[in-house]
Amino acid sequence: MSSISISNLTGQVAVITGGTRGIGRAIAEAFLAAGAKVVINGRNPEKGQRTLAELDAGSNALFAAGNVQDQQDVERVVHMAIEKFGKIDILVNNAGGSSGFAPVAEMSNESWQEAAAWILHSAFWASRIALQDMATRGYGRIINISSVEGRQANKATASHYITFKHALNGFTKAVAFEYGAQGITSNAISPGAVETDLMLETGAVAAESMGLTYDEYIDSYAQEASIKRINTVEEIAAVALLLASEFGGGINGAILPVDGGTAL
After folding, report:
1. Distance of alpha carbon 43 from alpha carbon 74, whole angstroms
2. Helix, strand or coil for residue 190?
3. pLDDT tens, 2-29?
4. 194 and 236 Cβ atoms separated by less than 8 Å
5. What is the model's pTM?
6. Structural domain that includes position 131
7. What element of type H or E holds 143?
8. In this predicted model, what pLDDT tens digit does every residue of 162-205 receive, in sequence order?
9. Which of 139, 161, 179, 221 is catalytic?
């Protein structure tokens, strides 16, 4: 019996939103190491070019600047992959977050709408374009980066983040149902806390809104996990690699936890 490998993405083209840092960056590195061509997205062109230099993948990696909260920017990223590489095989909707943490009665319209666009609308806009291309070839992988908060609701002042991560899980399942018979899978990874650049930026604000220091905020996530630590970006990238591979074809409509045993 030949050995099974999930680390061969030769000839595959992937788009990763929010791919210059954190989870998205780790997934980009894993996909490139497996032989894929990758288009990464981010809001900061300077950071994007620095990431490309660090990845050192030559013409196999491209950067597309844009804010995923803007429909035209999101669609441009997917179109860029199709124009430059001729197709898109894998879409990772990784970008997504929120700000303006507050109890529901005090949350602003702007914070709510920002979270909706950042987490949910961006995934819809990107998936809609990607699915059109994938359907013509009868093959595709859509991977949404959700959150443990999309499986439960036990954090105060984060109702917007919790709500739209739950919605992202529903969208994942809807796409899986509609397109599974066409050779296209749709799954979500549900990470626990991961200390990324975004966590460093927004975590301190979220912690303050909960009456905690940043260290206490991070430790609260670690203590909720049965492994008593937060997760790493590499652990999440490994699951993304499985879902993107040939052997991920039997997984569809799943919300896979990589949360160290946090979700009840």
Report:
1. 11
2. strand
3. 566 678 999 999 999 999 999 999 999 9
4. yes
5. 0.93
6. 13-193+232-256
7. strand 140-145
8. 999 999 999 999 999 999 999 999 999 999 888 777 777 777 87
9. 161
